[in-house]
Write a structure and sequence with these properties.
Layout lengths: L42 H9 L3 H13 L7 H12 L4 H13 L7 H13 L3 H13 L7 H12 L4 H13 L7 H13 L3 H13 L7 H12 L4 H13 L7 H13 L3 H13 L7 H12 L4 H13 L7 H13 L3 H13 L7 H13 L3 H13 L7 H13 L3 H13 L7 H13 L3 H13 L7 H13 L3 H11 L4 H17 L1 H5 L2
Helix pairs in contact: 1-2, 2-3, 3-4, 4-5, 5-6, 6-7, 7-8, 8-9, 9-10, 10-11, 11-12, 12-13, 13-14, 14-15, 15-16, 16-17, 17-18, 18-19, 19-20, 20-21, 21-22, 22-23, 23-24, 24-25, 25-26, 25-27
Length: about 525
Amino acid sequence: MNSGCEVRPWRRRPEARLSTARRATPLALFAMTLGLVGVDADLDELRRRAEAGDPGAQYGLGSLYVIGRGVRKDPGAALRWFRKAAEQGHPESQLNVGVLLDRGQGVVEDDVAALKWFRAAAAQGNRQAQFQLGVAYSEGQGAERDPYEAVKWYREAAEQGFAAAQYNLAVVVARGEGTVEDLDASVGWLRKAAEQGFEPAQDRLGVAYANGSGVPRDEGAAARWFRKAAEQGYPPAQYHLAGVYTRGAGLDVNPEEALKWIRESAGQGYPPAQYQLGMVHLVGGAVDRNHSEAARWFRKAAEQGESTAEFQLGLAYSGGAGVPKNSVEAMTWILRAAEHELAEAEVEAGIRYATGEGVEKDESKAVGWFRKAAARDHRRAQFNLGLMVEEGRGIRPNRATAARWYRKSADQGHPGAQLKLAMLYNQGLVFSKDPAEAARWGRKAAEQGLAVAQHYLAVLYSQGLGVSKDPVQVHKWLSLAALGGVADAKGALEKLEATLSAEQLAEGKRLAAEWRQSRPEAAMSQ
């Protein structure tokens, strides 16, 4: 479980507040609240005054229809009374008319009309309306998108102490959207909102301290801010606090607390936490391994579009881990993750198109997916793309292009690509023939435990290609390759041992054993 120290858009459940935040935006994370205050008058008296044209009473009566106090809930009736007061210049009613129009409650949704009423209330200094104008201009809802106008209205509301506006202003100032980028100013606005108890600001301030963004890195301060928001029930902060307890960053490592907070976050429907809880059940440790429970949490997150969970659910179907084995269903989820630009899923989709597993075989589509992931510097995708190009599968063959992809992958440490480069240097088909360079790349792959590369390096030592002939080194690398399952290495090793002296044989075995002890992870694969 990592700390996940990034800011993810999150919205409260729809019933909590009215909102323009239903739209996918990283700014309008929290909803607008209808101004429903001071409604204490007798209902009959309130209605009499409202019908006589008193805007305060009209506002109060509209509020009662929203909350259903003394009357049946009726957004349409609420809108009618708010509109009567709004037309007399009552700012809170103007705000509420805008909110109801924006949400399509009691009326057909109308962003343009909503903006008109927000602007009227904002002109009278209503800070919620000013904030809502900022959201509208940030999103381009009801008006053309205008980052500069958005900043203007966020700032108006922020300077009146409206926490949501302070938070959004911090976000856009950090990005330099509609204003000069200024991390110091961004943190200042975050702090103002956080100190008012605004959970998204507390969480984001924690992220700033965790990453050292705009403030000196301070994991203790990060943990404190995460806790403040987490204890108010804010799911991203609960997720981050779980990561803090997992890593021991700013707090002592505490698996029980980490599990508690990741469950809290996942239980509220936060997709990264649901995915992480799935991984906890998949790997085990804090809980017993349980593939069915892992798949259940992966599905919850996947159904919300969390790409990592989509991918894991696909793998679960592929292996029948916690769900019935189904290669078609596996490919469905892997493709969803790939379409959400998860590089590992793009590679897996490419492999399955290349092999026809769970989908009709289509090597050109395989190449397309490998290319997407390779462009993200995914080393396995680069290697696979090199193979497809070299062999002319789904694309015209081109050794020079293949070699470029092998090098990109090899430079990132992919052993298969390193071996391919070694072979190309030895063959002299793309590069000038260079046995020393072949040996260098072959050794890199062999040292990572790739058995076929170990066999290849043994051949180079036996023939003196790029290295001095050395029967002891030949024995070492053949021994390792044989342990790795290379059939040709086993036969060659038996023939070699018949020609070695007792000292050479002992030295070869010692070197192989020493290699295995120094590289336990690589040795485990053999």
